[in-house]
Structures are given as C-alpha cells and as structure tokens.
Amino acid sequence: MAGNREEAPDYGRGVVIMDDWPGYDLSLFTYPQHYYGDLEYVLIPHGIIVDRIERLAKDIMKDIGYCNIMVLCVLKGGYKFCADLVEHLKNISRNSDRCVSMKVDFIRLKSYRNDQSMDEMQIIGGDDLSTLAGKNVLIVEDVVGTGRTMKALLSSIEKYKPNKIKVASLLVKRTPRSDGFRPDYAGFEIPNLFVVGYALDYNEYFRDLNHICVINEHGKEKYRV
Ligand code: IMP
Ligand code: MG
C-alpha cells in the first residue's frame, strides 16, 4: 500500500492506495444486507478512514488552529467526513492551548457542464456567502476526481474575498483526466475507480455504508437510473 521506498514519500498525497491493491474481502467485515451482491470489495475500512481523519485534524490545527475557521461542508458526499473532522478538531481544541473557534456551514453545488468543461457553478444553500469576507475558510469535500468541481467552487468563493481558503478532501483519484488540482489536505489517494460508502453515493444509494467500497457491475445495474 505504501509508495516506492527509493523515493522520498510525498505525504501531501495522503495514504497512497496503489492500482494493484486488491482491497479487503467483504466477508471480513459487516455491512448492510441490502447491499449484499452489489459490491466488489472494501477499499478502505471505516476504522482506517476515521484514524486518518484524526491525523488530518492534527495537521489542520497545526496550520490554521490559531484563528477562527469557517468550515464549509460540500453536501451531500462530504457530510460524514466533515462531521468526523469537526469532532477531531473540537477534541484537539479542547485539549490544547490552541484556541480555535469554528463555524460550520453546508453548501450544495449545481454544475452546468458544456463540452466536458465546467463553465459555471451554482452554490445552493448555506449562509449569505458575502459573510466569508476576511474569514479563514476550510472547504471539506468527499472526493477530487478531475478537480473541475473544486476549481469552479474555489473561483466562486474567491469572489467573496476570504482571508484564506484551504481545501480538505477525503479522497483524491489518480485519473488521467485530472486537471492537476491538489487539495491542501488529502486523506487517501486512490486508483481511478468509482467508490461508494461513508456518504459517497451511486445515484443516492450506498451513503448508509460505513466502509469505502468498490461497486460491482451488478450494483451499477441495480441502481442505474
Ligand atoms: P470532479 O469535478 O471530477 O473532481 O468530481 C468531483 C465530484 O464528483 C465529487 O465531489 C463527487 O461528488 C463526484 N464523484 C467523483 N468520483 C466519485 C466516486 O467515485 N464516487 C462518488 N462520487 C464521486
Ligand atoms: Mg463531492
């Protein structure tokens, strides 16, 4: 699972899961019965996800834990990551001399794609974004694929002149379609696979699965819309 020992590890990539990583057999873990037969394997068990988030919280606190943070959770996929991250940030904040005050807000994104390129992004919900002016914003996202969503969101938010914007993404995909965007904090770098669980969905299904798993062809067919 780890990278090549000859090279200096790049911890900015997070935990690197290689393309030949076979995952864990589903029979070794528990998961909802209604998803029996729909999954290929467990890519990241729930416990490892939470342990990794604990470390991300420590890294975030080290960087920006001396000021007030506005946490912006990108729904729906980011809700589990955001909840666990905020919990760890609160724990660190309570048990250290760092004094961080956190506000949390939730947004949803609606994108318009035109010839594969995202021209415009609509931000739905959340408080009036003009309140972000001068604030230290931490965007919490589930997965960066091509990076287009994040780039579009960042350029929308930059208009409101926050003091600082940092991006935490639980997952980053290694995809040839990447536009090169890299979050400031990455939980795991994963192969170019469609994954579900831990709030990530396939047509709204699988958000109620604890582990991050790879969906199989049967699952894709069953929940296709
Ligand atoms: P991007 O614009 O290609 O970076 O896509 C990012 C968005 O697509 C994420 O915020 C997710 O909502 C969604 N997405 C990309 N890959 C997956 C996946 O494997 N499972 C579930 N949602 C995904
Ligand atoms: Mg997302």
UniProtKB/TrEMBL annotation:
Enzyme Commission number(s): 2.4.2.8
Pathway: Purine metabolism; IMP biosynthesis via salvage pathway; IMP from hypoxanthine: step 1/1
Cellular compartments annotated: Cytoplasm
Keywords on record: Cytoplasm, Glycosyltransferase, Magnesium, Metal-binding, Nucleotide-binding, Purine salvage, Transferase
Record InterPro entries: HGPRT, Hxn_phspho_trans, PRTase-like, PRTase_dom
GO cellular component, one term: cytosol
GO biological process, one term: purine ribonucleoside salvage
Cofactor: Mg(2+)
Catalysed transformations (reactions): IMP + diphosphate = hypoxanthine + 5-phospho-alpha-D-ribose 1-diphosphate
Top-rank taxon: Eukaryota
GO molecular function: hypoxanthine phosphoribosyltransferase activity; metal ion binding; nucleotide binding
Ranges of residues in domain Phosphoribosyltransferase: 47-202
Chief location: cytoplasm
Sequence similarity: Belongs to the purine/pyrimidine phosphoribosyltransferase family.
Name of the protein this chain belongs to: Hypoxanthine phosphoribosyltransferase
Species annotation: Ovis ammon polii
